[in-house]
């Protein structure tokens, strides 16, 4: 009886590992890199790049940054011309298909100005796991001098 149970278990494990290896080798590789243009979101607009890290079947982490150019900006009463801004972000994507709930945090960092505006993200992301068109829409409130500024953003881009 023990021997029959052992052979049955060994056969089941062998078949399931063979099935899993065939499934992994026949599936298309995940596309991890994205570029997109965001209007709103971190501030006014930005051109962004991010990389996806698969943590489980239903969760991915998107780490990236954007670049924004502002011809004029005023911070704490000081006007500055020609400012480049970075928008680093970390977002968590929840979903097994192309449709994802997206949560995360980002920063608006004007170079050479010294002010940093953090923001949160709660939204929807359409991003096929095998690459292609990327679409995002989100509520992105910013924190400024102990007040919360309601804000939103929309993004379109491409995953490769």
Sequence of secondary-structure elements? HEEEEEEEEEEE
Number of domains: 2
Low-confidence stretches: 1-26
Radius of gyration: 22 Å
Number of helices: 1
Share of residues in strands:
over 45%
Number of strands: 11
Oligomer: single chain
Topology:
Elements: H1 2-26, E1 33-40, E2 45-56, E3 59-75, E4 78-86, E5 89-94, E6 99-110, E7 117-126, E8 132-139, E9 142-144, E10 147-149, E11 152-159
Antiparallel strand pairs: 1-2, 1-11, 2-3, 3-4, 3-5, 4-6, 5-6, 6-7, 7-8, 8-11, 9-10
Keywords:
11 strands, elongated, 9-stranded antiparallel sheet, two-stranded antiparallel sheet, alpha+beta, Porin, 160 residues
Structure description:
Helices cover 16% and strands 60% of the residues. By secondary structure, it is an alpha+beta fold. It has 2 domains: 30 residues; 127 residues, Porin (Beta Barrel), CATH 2.40.160.20. Strand 9 and strand 10 form a beta hairpin. The N terminus is likely disordered.
What is shown here, in short?
With about 160 residues, this protein is of the alpha+beta class. The protein contains 1 helix and 11 strands; from the N terminus they run H-E-E-E-E-E-E-E-E-E-E-E.
């Amino acid at each position: 009886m023990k021997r029959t149970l052992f052979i049955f278990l060994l056969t089941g494990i062998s078949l399931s590992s063979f099935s899993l290896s065939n499934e992994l080798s026949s599936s298309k590789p995940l596309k991890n890199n994205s570029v997109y243009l965001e209007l709103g979101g971190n501030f006014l607009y930005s051109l962004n790049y991010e990389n996806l890290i698969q943590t489980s079947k239903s969760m991915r982490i998107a780490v990236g940054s954007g670049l924004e150019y502002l011809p004029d900006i005023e911070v704490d009463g000081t006007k500055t011309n020609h400012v480049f801004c970075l928008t680093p972000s970390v977002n968590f994507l929840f979903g097994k298909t192309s449709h994802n709930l997206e949560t995360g945090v980002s920063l608006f960092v004007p170079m050479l100005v010294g002010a940093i505006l953090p923001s949160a993200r709660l939204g929807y992301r359409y991003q096929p796991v095998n690459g292609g068109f990327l679409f995002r829409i989100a509520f992105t409130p910013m924190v400024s001098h102990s007040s919360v500024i309601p804000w939103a953003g929309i993004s379109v881009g491409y995953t490769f």
